[in-house]
């Protein structure tokens, strides 16, 4: 896995941060994995309040909205639950996930570069 030094530091810090968050969580019952898509701006702009989260932010778009910060502890619990579903130590699970994400990003980047050349 060839990644620039700054990116490795970022992923390492993210992994450590996620692992720290899971230490106090509880294992919850198994649920079907959700699928999340961003609503296109043409639809979202018709009525923004319909698409603004009121309780929890999932992803970076509304992450820093002050009124959503109360749910961050619950998200930690959910992360802990997810990590303990697998028969690997949490560090291994997160490491594997990060490697897959990096691979996917690189694959998409190569595809986009090819499209730009056309």
Total of domains: 1
Number of strands: 0
Q: Which secondary-structure class do the elements indicate?
A: mainly alpha
What does the radius of gyration come to?
17 Å
Question: How would you characterize the largest beta sheet?
Answer: none
- The first-to-last residue Cα distance is 28 Å
- Beta-strand fraction estimate: under 5%
Helix content: 40-55%
Provide the residue-averaged pLDDT: 73
Low-confidence stretches at least 5 residues in length (pLDDT < 50)? 24-31
- Separate helix tally: 4
Pfam families: DUF247 (PF03140)
InterPro entries: DUF247_pln
Write up what this structure looks like:
By secondary structure, the protein is mainly alpha-helical. It has one domain. Helix 1 (5-22) runs antiparallel to helix 4. The chain is built from 4 helices and no strands. The two termini are 28 Å apart. It has helices spanning 5-22, 41-44, 72-83, 90-117. The longest helix is centred in the last third of the chain and has 28 residues, at 90-117.
Nutshell version of this structure?
This protein is mostly helical and 118 residues long. The protein has one domain. It has 4 helices and no strands.
Give the secondary structure arrangement, pairings included.
Blueprint lengths: L4 H18 L18 H4 L27 H12 L6 H28 L1
Helix pairs in contact: 1-3, 1-4
Labels describing this entry:
DUF247_pln, mainly alpha, 118 residues, 53% helix, single chain
């Amino acid at each position: 896995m060839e990644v620039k030094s700054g990116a490795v530091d970022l992923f390492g810090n993210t992994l450590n941060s996620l692992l720290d968050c899971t230490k106090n969580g509880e294992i919850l019952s198994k649920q079907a994995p959700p699928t999340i898509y961003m609503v296109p701006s043409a639809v979202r702009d018709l009525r923004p309040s319909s698409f603004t989260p009121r309780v929890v932010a999932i992803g970076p778009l509304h992450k820093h909205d002050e009124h959503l910060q109360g749910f961050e502890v619950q998200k930690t619990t959910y992360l802990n639950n997810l990590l303990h579903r697998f028969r690997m130590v949490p560090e291994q699970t997160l490491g594997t996930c990060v490697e897959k994400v990096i691979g996917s990003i690189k694959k998409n980047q190569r595809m986009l570069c090819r499209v730009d050349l056309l």
